[in-house]
Design a protein that fits this description.
mainly alpha, 9 helices, 77% helix
């Protein structure tokens, strides 16, 4: 901590680095005023991004809780060799893991290759549903920080994140 305060004192001695001491709210007000009209769409995107983050946090947390409870009860049934009851519980479950497990249990007597293929297929569908809303978050990121999506400010040179956003926007519009 001492080195940070020493650095701060050294920087204050440099010419041209004198800045008025502003409170956090005054700093935000000055930043908003300096940004002009462009701050309104940026502020809206920031609020939208925050809403999406809170929504996904709540959504994934509730799904994780349901999955944990479901897997505990299915583990007990499978340990007792009650596969029919476990399959019924998996079908009735409202969790992504339940739907994936149900696909595997439905084909448990068809061989491991068919079980794996069923789990992969349903897993891909569930993954897509878990990613719902992240496209909008990536779009908001593109608006707020375009340097993340475009190389050197060139609109024709996309980064990996930029390619992801553009492809998903095309899919959304389709």
């Amino acid at each position: 901590m001492g080195s940070v305060s020493t650095l701060g004192m050294a920087l204050r001695q440099l010419q041209g680095l004198e800045a008025p001491q502003l409170t956090a709210s005054e700093w935000v007000q000055q930043l908003w005023a300096d940004g002009g009209w462009m701050m309104y769409p940026l502020g809206a995107c920031a609020v939208l991004g925050l809403i999406i983050i809170v929504w996904k946090l709540f959504d994934l947390t509730t799904k994780a809780g349901r999955t944990r409870r479901f897997l505990n009860s299915v583990d007990e049934l499978v340990a007792q060799r009650k596969l029919k009851e476990a399959l019924g519980l998996a079908r009735d479950s409202n969790s992504p893991a339940g739907r994936i497990l149900a696909a595997g249990l439905e084909r448990h007597d068809e061989g491991s290759e068919r079980v794996m293929k069923a789990i992969e297929n349903v897993g891909m569908i569930e993954l897509a549903s878990l990613e719902r809303g992240l496209v909008w978050l990536a779009t908001v990121l593109l608006v707020i920080q375009p340097h993340v999506s475009f190389q050197d400010g060139n609109l024709f040179k996309l980064t990996v994140e930029g390619e992801f956003v553009v492809k998903n926007l095309v899919l959304l519009s389709a």
